[in-house]
Amino acid sequence: MWQDELKFGIISYILMFAFYIYWSMCIYSFRLYRPEYISDADIRHAQSHNMPLMGAPSMPQTAMINNPAAPAGPYPPDRSVIVLNNHKPSKKKSKFDSFKHIKKSMRPNRTVTPLHRNDSQFTIGFKLGPDGKIIDIESAPSPTPTYTAVDYFKRKPIQEDDEDDENDDKMFSTIPPSFRRHVFNQGKRFKSELSASKLQIKKTDTLKPLVANKDLVFGNSFTDHMISVKWNEDKGWDVPEIRPYENLSLAPSTSVFHYATECFEGMKAYKDKNGKIRLFRPDMNMARMNRSTERIALPQFNGDELIKLISEYLKLDERWIPNERGYSLYIRPTMIGTQETLGVNPPSDALLFVIGCPVGPYYKTGFNAIRLYATSEYVRAWPRGTGSAKLGGNYAPGLMPQRLAAAKGYQQNLWLFGPDHQLTEVDAMNLFMITKDEHGQPELVTPPLDGSILPGVTRDSIIQLAKDWNEFKVTERKITMPELCDLAKAGRVMEMFCAGTASVVSPVKEIGYMDEDLKIPLDPNDSNAQAGPYTKRFNDAIYAIQYGEVEHPWSVVIN
């Protein structure tokens, strides 16, 4: 009899212990899903397992696909998203403060307003006071014991001296490797975070001679220094360095040489009339680069910290930043996989480096209209591929078609896709056109971000400017080459231009398609003009922001 009771007691104890471990993992997963840790894959995994979840993907496009309560994206690029899923409110004082990490990830005096509320949800809105305490909590109780709250807030990086880092490390050591690999992947990658506070600077002994603005060729001259940070899967991010510009030393078996584990960004530094250094929407570049690294299994990083590193680099190499309008310092953050192996696996080692080169107008002809060759023989990207990531592997396949287009007298390829010849983007730029709608009113049209098109910073800026002006309709939709030809023949195409970081805005005057040249209007009031009035207006507006000629939050001054 006592044996049965003992057996029953042991089994009960084991079940209770198992339940405790399972619930602890759920709670700890809630704690670890801080803004820097979260990814779309983590969100989908956690939701599919009914795990409590708090997260902040950068500019999520599909992060909430399994959460019917979440509003459709994309969300503002400088915001983060909170999702509290299947979490039961309790009147009892809990040892774990669910708002604790939210508070750490918010800026003081930032009001958070609910995005979604209905009778089946428990939605929370709150505000942080100057002392960092949550104030003005408001809630809409749910008739059911579970709730789903979706909101967004301004991000602030978690400091290196986070009091919970030690506890998180202890917790990680107790979680089975398989669970840790699939659920806490991003947390593991942040074992040691990228931190500008650890920066070490080694100055060069010999400064290079500067290149005159008139002699600058895009991407040919480089500054005296570079940023370099190593990453290891077990240790995390190493100490960041600014050191003399020099060659890299890599083994022939390094993964980047064999499997293209490489991504990069393109951004610029400008000098305004007062000599201040400015960056243009650097947070957008950081968010996009993190999406690119995630796509090819390279490590994530804190974008705010990299911006701080770039700022220190710009101060050190300030003499290389041209002080003439139309000229700037092009900055190229790059990450490569550096593990020495021929195995096809996510790299266990990586290198993040940043170099810079002074540049002038992207085209030798300056701000003049270009000719595009609409190619259907080759494809740049395809659905569910890597077209939306800024990977080196996306550019090499376009070099041969670009050479063929140049041989025919065209400056760039206009990539078409599908049997209906959908317009996607140009070699290194996004595409826009001004057309007349069915009522004869101007409309800005651009292909949508369907996963095969790079979400350009300049592209987003043009769309936002057009919406702010509120003078014409802005449409993101599929448009085919036959439709464009019909619109042109009907006189409904007013202008066309390309947009990108390197060139800013490039007017288009002609498209080669099916052995014919389709003429694109420029300025109807000036036969000698190289750009239409809308194209020129967008170009001037962006330049004015970049060079600090107008006050705008997109222009970030480097103190």
UniProtKB/TrEMBL annotation:
Key words of the record: Amino-acid biosynthesis, Aminotransferase, Branched-chain amino acid biosynthesis, Membrane, Pyridoxal phosphate, Transferase, Transmembrane, Transmembrane helix
One Pfam family named in its UniProt record: Aminotran_4
Enzyme class: transferase
GO biological process: L-leucine biosynthetic process; L-valine biosynthetic process
TM spans (from-to): 6-30
Keyword Ligase applies: no
A molecular function GO annotation: branched-chain-amino-acid transaminase activity
Cofactor(s) needed by this chain: pyridoxal 5'-phosphate
Lineage top rank: taxon: Eukaryota
Annotated GO CC locations: mitochondrion
Listed InterPro entries: Aminotrans_IV, Aminotransferase-like, B_amino_transII, BCAT-like_C, BCAT-like_N, BCAT_family
EC number: 2.6.1.42
Protein family: Belongs to the class-IV pyridoxal-phosphate-dependent aminotransferase family.
Protein name: branched-chain-amino-acid transaminase
